[in-house]
Structure formats: C-alpha cells, structure tokens
C-alpha cells in the first residue's frame, strides 16, 4: 500500500482543518474579490452542470459559498449542499447564503472531502451532480476526493471538476511565478489530474470529457454516465 492509499488519521484531518482555518481566517473577507481574477473557468463549469428539475447538487470544498450561490441562482428548482473542512470559510458562506435568501435551498456542513458520510451530514445519500472548483489542488490525498465524489453520485449523475492545469501553453516564466504565488496558499496544481480522472472513469464505466482552458491555465473535466 502506497502512502497515498493510507487512510488519513483523525489527527491529520484535524491538522489540515486547522491549517485551512489559519490560511482563510482573514482572507475569507476578500477571497471572492481577489480570486475572480485567477480562478478561471468556474462559471463555464456551473453553466454546464445541466441540473435536472428537483435535482440535488453537492459542492466539495465550497469555501465562501460563491459557487454554490451562483449555481443555486442558475438552477432555481434544485437543492444544493456544500461541504468544507474550514469552519472559517463556512461561517462566511453561511452569511452569504442567508443574505441571498437561499438558506431554504442550500445546506452547509463541515467535513473532509476525502472521506464523508453524505447521509449523516445532509440526510441525502446520492446526488445528481457533484462539483469541485479549485479545491483538489489544496486537498492532501486529493485522489480520494475524486473516488468519494463518484461514490456519492446517483446512477445517472455526473462529477464536474475545474482546477489549475499545467499552464502547458503559457510561457515558463509565467508558470514559475504562478506556482510560487500559489505555494504561499498551500496550493499545488495536480500534474496527474487528467490521468487519475481517466482511470476513475474507466474503473466506474463512466464517460469522460476533458477540456483545457486558456492555454492550459485551467483544466475542466466531467465524469458522467455512458450514453
């Protein structure tokens, strides 16, 4: 068993939660204002969710609630759920959801995206859509998040992911500057993201779609049902 396959201890999860709370305790107040300039591809992902009427949607790593609020506006007949490991971020998300009058349609819970019990947290066992926006690049053992997300899907559900690519079409100096900046916030673009998603789609017999955005700045992927 490799180190990436070892289950995370409660102490490790607690330490990661504490780290995220520390990183975002103050940043959460300006997070959405600053991140809109470089978390590219989030809105196209939300537009492509194609949520069925009365569907259920889960966001893993919901942060300030920006994405789940936008999705709830876009799909007014659906129910939404947000999971995050940071209590600080969830506090901000809860206030934003209340301000938007969406508290009746959006439920938040604190938990680990690599290992969560949807029924215990939300009283929902399966979701029509699960999406992850710029969170896999921050989650230790992020591969487990992909597996957990797929396990939480309904039979005809789909998983939607947007995150940093490898900036393969951009100048090397840009990649170097970006990686240095992201490292300050414990963010690391996942070089093997496409490979892992393709492997998981084969394992589950699902379809797989992948797009590079902005010369590889971001990667957008969908794992969904065949046919």
From TrEMBL:
Keyword terms, alphabetized: Methyltransferase, Transferase
Signal peptide: none
Spans traversing the lipid bilayer: none
GO biological-process terms attached to the record: methylation
Top-rank taxon, per record: Bacteria
UniProt keyword Methyltransferase present: yes
A Pfam family reported for this protein in Swiss-Prot or TrEMBL: Methyltransf_25
GO MF term list: methyltransferase activity
Domain Methyltransferase stretches: 57-157
PANTHER family: PUTATIVE (AFU_ORTHOLOGUE AFUA_2G14390)-RELATED, TRANS-ACONITATE 2-METHYLTRANSFERASE-RELATED
Annotated protein name in UniProt: Class I SAM-dependent methyltransferase
Annotated organism of origin: Mesorhizobium ciceri
């Amino acid at each position: 068993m490799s180190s990436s396959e070892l289950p995370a201890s409660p102490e490790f999860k607690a330490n990661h939660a504490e780290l995220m709370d520390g990183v975002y305790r103050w940043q959460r107040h300006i997070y959405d204002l600053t991140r809109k300039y470089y978390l590219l591809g989030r809105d196209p992902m939300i537009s492509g969710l194609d949520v069925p009427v009365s569907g259920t949607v889960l966001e893993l790593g919901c942060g300030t609630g920006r994405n789940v609020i936008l999705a709830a506006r876009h799909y007014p007949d659906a129910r939404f759920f947000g999971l995050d490991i940071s209590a600080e971020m969830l506090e901000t998300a809860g206030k934003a959801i209340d301000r938007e009058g969406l508290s009746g349609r959006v439920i938040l819970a604190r938990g680990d995206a690599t290992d969560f019990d949807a029924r215990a947290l939300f009283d929902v066992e399966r979701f029509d859509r699960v999406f992850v926006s710029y969170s896999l690049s921050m989650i230790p053992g992020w591969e487990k998040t992909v597996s957990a997300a797929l396990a939480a899907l309904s039979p005809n559900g789909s998983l939607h992911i947007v995150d940093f690519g490898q900036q393969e079409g951009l100048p090397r100096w840009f990649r170097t500057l970006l990686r240095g900046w992201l490292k300050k916030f414990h963010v690391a673009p996942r070089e093997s993201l496409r490979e892992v998603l393709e492997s998981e789609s084969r394992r589950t017999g699902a379809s797989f779609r992948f797009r590079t955005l902005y010369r590889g700045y971001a990667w957008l992927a969908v794992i969904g049902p065949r046919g």
